[in-house]
């Protein structure tokens, strides 16, 4: 493309030659890319032109075109002789700039002058060429980026995928073939759930649904998929949402990692832990773990059982908390030796038991962290009390023999017969093996071997080797009498007589357990050196390598042989003079330490913290040199990052202060330029000032006390302070301080960050004044002011605090829960309230009355009035209104209605009573009047029988009036609650029979009354007068409203300690609509016609039954009859 452009310039603009340079941004050098015309080469002096050098570099640096038609006189042309020789007249150069970025230069030389139009054409061509070059560079970068991404995806051990908004795969990397056995095209078009079992798919859907609904990223979502061959694969899925340029959700992009092996290893680890716990719990010895402060971290079950302690009593306690001081002190001393030495130790320790002191053989060893620091001591103790006692007895019984073999007490020397049976035994053997002579002589010497060796016939093989070779020597583990093991060196020698016949063997055994332990300790030390991350080398005094650890090989890429081949340790030093200085220092017997730059075998620089020291022999002579190299390259990079952060702090727009709290007055040691701009004080004026009282802070501020308290307690704190600038002006700043601690946890500095919030404070002051005015208006008014949403659920946006005085709810409860207001309206009122509010946008205002649930559980009447608030465009913003408690008014209205109803009812009762009494009393009075007048005028003419007839009529009328008056009096007492209940012991059956007889005597008609009861007698306590009112009224009504010759049935029964009275007639019956009012005073059924009655009888019956705490029921059919059932409790004792 660029070649075509320069060719066109030569052809169409008449240039002698044209060239294009492209800027190498990293080196800031213009590199010649193409040349057309008389010169086509791209090498030479102009192939690489630095920015600002020569005319090409100046065009690029100045970003300005350059035109001259007098090249031979142009000061920017260095070789004017060349210009004259080649006849060059004109030069034109243009910077190639795209979007403000310089990317190169285009230039041409011509043998004829360049016109303005030619130069303009060159400028247009430069602009188009720059755009083309930039586009090409972008395409190349994009292609390289896509290639890197494709390589990364294909090389990744993770499966990369994309799904659309319906969770359907739209891209799948080839890794799916290795993880799930599917080809990518087999997965495309499916959802992840189709690759799972149904139960797992449902579980993952429930987890993913809320994430997808919120378009959130997710991490570490574990899910189990089905491999194509049927086995299960556990994946760990991470994904992020994808949005297009318009912000529309397009799906998710993420990766799946196969964690099947990790999950299996975790399960195996758990099983191993369980096995180790089982071993620990069943270990027969005492096992315990203590930290470096001698506090218990662990004891095994045997330890708990032996000392009658449990984990809760022991863990966290020190040795002094559990044991007597003298015993604990011994344990502590032994533990300190283990910690200080860093190697296992064996001790005999004494611990108290209920039966006395017991001796334990304790093997204690240190537990170290990854840095080789001991953090705990583990102990295994075996009770050797019995063995100690046996050894003491053996020592006493064979003291003489021990003295004889004092010189060989470290050796077990004994004789064997040809079959391997012990024939003699010395004290050294007793000490080493624990067997006394009387216990071992005559026994086979195989008892000292382990069971597997006995099984493999090792004892017999050793006898055969010794007999054949004249000697058998070995180092192995043997078994003592108590079952413990020990290392020993054994020499077995055959014994022959003069004839050469084998008479037996002599065996010399030396205990080498301590030597083996030492070898083991040295091996651990070697492993520690080999496992450390520090590079360690040991050289001779000339610097030749004797030993290097694996870390040295990793850091410097040298083995010991390779290092010596390159001249020894000096090959690592970038500065040989420094190496010589270090070596001379160590040769003088002194240590050397410092930070140096060293080099690897590939000559890469490594930053090293070097410690070098001499290794001396027992005489103090230097025999070797040890060097420990810590790679601090990363630390140096971090330090550079910190320096970069310091520069960022200096450039921050926030004022930053650092104060040294270790100084007496917490003086300021650093402020950034933003602080200077904010306060007007320079760094020199501020440094050393007391923090936080620098720069004229008004000291009479409560925030300062809060700040001092935070600094004294080492806490974070943010306060707002009123401050004075250097010029005297007042400004407000928000100061946040944070403590800084050193590695030991000690407070050393405070960092303060302050922002100028003067404008915000001024706005807050104006807002506060407005709020105070509004608050006064809200608290002074008894009404509650509110604003709410104009649509949907009409939830509260704001409500004044005096709402609590009205309904005892906090204002925030209305605001935090949008449905709070509506859900507390009385269910009967809520639909009407919502319906009316739904029309508020049309009617623009509203007024409501409804009941609202108070916090005490009662409902209060509320008057709610408000209107719609509109914006300038006529859109509804909110509803604004007020509440007023009208409960008192509603109660007065209700009381007024009740009073009116009662007055109406009393008037009705009064009218009915007057009507009844006038009607009921008129008939008997008329009878009395007429009969008395007839007797007065005609008694002399009438017979005795006729006079008696009229006298009986007068008596009957008087009796009728007396009954009516009695009913009225009893009803009045019942209404006033003055009926007395006086129970007496009576026979209920006998009482009913007598009552029936009295009713029959008073009857002058032909009614029949049938009384029946299955009981001969029922004794109980009842009030006979109340019972009489009940039964007499019921019987009287049954007779009154029945035809002559009809039967009235009266039965008495008992049911669940209740007396059940049933009175059934064959009368006119009671209409169904009269049944609800049957027991109301003065109420009479509408079908009674001219039958006399007051309407009080059944009301009296109901009152008496209620006094008895009984119940009365009635069933009736028109024209067939009525049955009353009364149930009264049977009381066996007076109450």
TrEMBL record:
Reactions performed catalytically: ATP + protein L-histidine = ADP + protein N-phospho-L-histidine
Keyword Ribonucleoprotein annotated: no
InterPro entries per record: GAF (IPR003018), GAF-like_dom_sf (IPR029016), HATPase_C_sf (IPR036890), HATPase_dom (IPR003594), His_kinase_dom (IPR005467), HisK_dim/P_dom (IPR003661), HisK_dim/P_sf (IPR036097), PAC (IPR001610)
EC number of this enzyme: 2.7.13.3
Record domain PAS: where: 145-208, 272-322, 397-442, 521-559, 647-689, 770-844
Alphabetized Pfam families for the sequence: GAF_2, HATPase_c, HisKA, PAS_3, PAS_4, PAS_9
Keywords on record: Kinase, Phosphoprotein, Transferase, Two-component regulatory system
GO molecular function, one term: phosphorelay sensor kinase activity
Domain Histidine kinase residues, every copy: 916-1132
All copies of domain PAC, residue ranges: 219-271, 345-396, 472-524, 592-644, 715-769, 846-898
PANTHER family to which the protein is assigned, alphabetical: PAC DOMAIN-CONTAINING PROTEIN, PHYTOCHROME-LIKE PROTEIN CPH1
UniProt function note: Photoreceptor which exists in two forms that are reversibly interconvertible by light: the R form that absorbs maximally in the red region of the spectrum and the FR form that absorbs maximally in the far-red region.
The name this protein goes by in its record: histidine kinase
Organism: Anabaena sphaerica FACHB-251
């Amino acid at each position: 493309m660029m070649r075509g452009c320069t060719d066109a310039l030569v052809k169409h603009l008449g240039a002698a030659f044209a060239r294009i340079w492209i800027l190498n941004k990293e080196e800031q050098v213009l590199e010649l890319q193409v040349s057309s015309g008389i010169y086509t080469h791209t090498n030479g002096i102009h192939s690489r032109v630095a920015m600002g050098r020569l005319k090409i570099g100046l065009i690029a640096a100045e970003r300005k075109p350059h035109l001259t038609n007098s090249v031979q006189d142009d000061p920017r042309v260095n070789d004017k002789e060349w210009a004259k020789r080649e006849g060059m007249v004109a030069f034109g150069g243009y910077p190639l700039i795209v979007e403000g970025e310089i990317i190169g230069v285009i230039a041409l030389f011509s043998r004829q002058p360049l016109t303005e139009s030619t130069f303009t054409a060159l400028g247009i061509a430069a602009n188009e060429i720059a755009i083309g070059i930039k586009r090409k560079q972008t395409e190349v970068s994009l292609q390289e980026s896509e290639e890197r991404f494709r390589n990364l995806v294909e090389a990744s051990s993770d499966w990369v995928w994309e799904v659309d908004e319906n969770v359907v795969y739209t891209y799948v990397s080839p890794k799916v073939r290795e993880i799930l056995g599917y080809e990518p095209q087999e997965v495309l078009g499916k959802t992840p759930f189709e690759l799972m079992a149904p139960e797992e798919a449902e579980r993952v859907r429930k987890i993913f649904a809320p994430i997808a609904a919120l378009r959130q990223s997710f991490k570490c979502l574990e899910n189990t998929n089905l491999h194509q061959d049927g086995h299960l694969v556990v994946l760990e899925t991470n994904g992020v949402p994808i949005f297009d340029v318009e912000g529309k959700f397009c799906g998710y992009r993420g990766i799946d990692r196969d964690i099947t092996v990790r999950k299996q290893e975790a399960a195996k680890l758990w099983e191993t832990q369980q096995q180790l716990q089982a071993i620990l719990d069943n270990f027969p010895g005492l096992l315990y773990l203590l930290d470096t402060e001698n506090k218990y971290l662990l004891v095994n079950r045997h330890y708990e059982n032996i000392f009658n302690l449990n984990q809760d009593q022991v863990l966290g306690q020190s040795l002094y908390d559990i044991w007597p001081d003298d015993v604990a002190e011994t344990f502590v001393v032994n533990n300190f030796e283990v910690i200080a030495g860093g190697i296992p130790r064996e001790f005999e320790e004494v611990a108290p038991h209920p039966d006395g002191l017991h001796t334990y053989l304790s093997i204690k060893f240190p537990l170290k962290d990854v840095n080789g620091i001991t953090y705990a001591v583990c102990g295994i103790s075996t009770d050797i009390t019995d063995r100690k006692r046996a050894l003491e007895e053996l020592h006493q019984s064979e003291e003489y023999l021990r003295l004889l073999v004092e010189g060989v007490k470290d050796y077990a020397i004994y004789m064997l017969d040809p079959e391997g049976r012990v024939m003699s035994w010395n004290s050294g053997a007793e000490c080493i093996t624990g067997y006394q002579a009387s216990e071992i002589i005559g026994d086979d010497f195989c008892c000292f071997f382990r069971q597997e060796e006995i099984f493999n016939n090792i004892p017999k093989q050793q006898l055969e080797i010794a007999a054949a070779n004249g000697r058998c020597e070995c180092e192995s583990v043997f078994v003592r009498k108590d079952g413990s093991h020990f290392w020993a060196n054994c020499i077995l020698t055959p014994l022959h007589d003069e004839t050469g016949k084998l008479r037996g063997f002599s065996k010399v055994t030396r205990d080498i357990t301590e030597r083996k332990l030492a070898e083991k300790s040295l091996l651990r030390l070697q492993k520690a050196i080999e496992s450390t991350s520090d590079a360690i080398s040991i050289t001779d005094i000339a610097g030749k390598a004797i030993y290097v650890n694996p870390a040295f090989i990793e850091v410097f890429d040298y083995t010991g042989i390779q290092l010596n081949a390159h001249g020894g340790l000096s090959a690592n030093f970038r500065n040989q003079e420094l190496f010589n200085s270090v070596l001379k220092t160590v040769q003088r017997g002194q240590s050397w330490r410092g930070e140096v730059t060293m080099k690897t075998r590939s000559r890469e620089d490594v930053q090293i913290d070097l410690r070098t020291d001499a290794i001396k022999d027992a005489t103090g002579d230097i025999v070797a040199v040890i060097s420990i190299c810590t790679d601090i390259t990363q630390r140096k990079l971090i330090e550079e990052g910190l320096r970069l952060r310091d520069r960022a702090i200096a450039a921050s727009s926030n004022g930053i202060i650092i104060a040294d709290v270790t100084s007496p007055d917490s003086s300021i040691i650093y402020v950034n330029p933003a602080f200077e701009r904010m306060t007007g004080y320079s760094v020199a004026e501020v440094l050393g000032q007391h923090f936080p009282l620098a720069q004229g802070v008004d000291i009479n501020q409560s925030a300062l006390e809060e700040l001092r308290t935070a600094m004294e307690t080492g806490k974070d704190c943010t306060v707002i302070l009123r401050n004075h600038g250097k010029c005297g002006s007042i400004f407000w700043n928000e100061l946040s301080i944070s403590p800084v601690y050193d590695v030991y946890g000690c407070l050393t500095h405070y960092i303060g960050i302050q922002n100028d919030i003067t404008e915000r404070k001024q706005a807050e002051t104006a807002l506060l004044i407005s709020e105070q005015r509004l608050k006064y208006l809200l608290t002074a008014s008894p009404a509650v002011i509110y604003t709410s949403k104009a649509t949907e659920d009409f939830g509260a946006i704001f409500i004044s605090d005096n709402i609590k005085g009205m309904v005892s709810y906090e204002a925030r409860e209305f605001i935090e829960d949008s449905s709070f207001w509506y859900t507390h309206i009385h269910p009967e009122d809520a639909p009407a309230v919502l319906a009316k509010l739904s029309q508020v946008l049309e009617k623009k205002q509203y007024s409501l009355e409804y009941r609202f649930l108070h916090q005490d559980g009662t409902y209060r009447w509320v008057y709610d009035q408000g209107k719609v608030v509109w914006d300038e465009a006529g859109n509804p913003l909110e509803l604004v209104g007020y509440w007023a408690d009208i409960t008192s008014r509603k109660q007065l209205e209700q009381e007024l209605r009740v009073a009116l109803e009662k007055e109406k009812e009393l008037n009705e009762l009064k009218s009915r009573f007057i009507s009844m009494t006038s009607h009921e009393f008129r008939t008997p009075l008329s009878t009395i009047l007429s009969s008395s007048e007839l007797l007065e005028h005609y008694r002399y003419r009438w017979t005795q029988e006729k006079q008696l007839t009229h006298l009986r009529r007068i008596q009957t009328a008087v009796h009728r009036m007396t009954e009516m008056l009695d009913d009225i009096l009893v009803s009045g007492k019942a209404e006033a609650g003055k009926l007395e209940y006086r129970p007496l012991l009576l026979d209920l059956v006998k009482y009913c029979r007598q009552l029936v007889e009295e009713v029959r005597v008073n009857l002058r008609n032909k009614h029949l009354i049938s009384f029946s009861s299955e009981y001969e007698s029922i004794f109980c306590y009842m009030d006979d007068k109340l019972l009489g009112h009940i039964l007499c009224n019921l019987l009287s009504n049954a007779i009154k409203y029945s035809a002559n010759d009809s039967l009235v049935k009266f039965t008495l029964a008992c049911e669940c300690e209740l007396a059940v009275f049933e009175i059934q007639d064959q009368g006119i019956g009671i209409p169904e609509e009269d049944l609800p009012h049957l027991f109301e005073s003065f109420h009479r059924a509408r079908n009674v016609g001219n039958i006399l009655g007051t309407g009080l009888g059944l009301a009296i019956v109901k009152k008496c039954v209620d006094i008895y705490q009984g119940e009365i029921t009635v069933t009736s059919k028109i024209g067939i009859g009525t049955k009353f059932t009364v149930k009264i409790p049977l009381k066996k004792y007076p109450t």
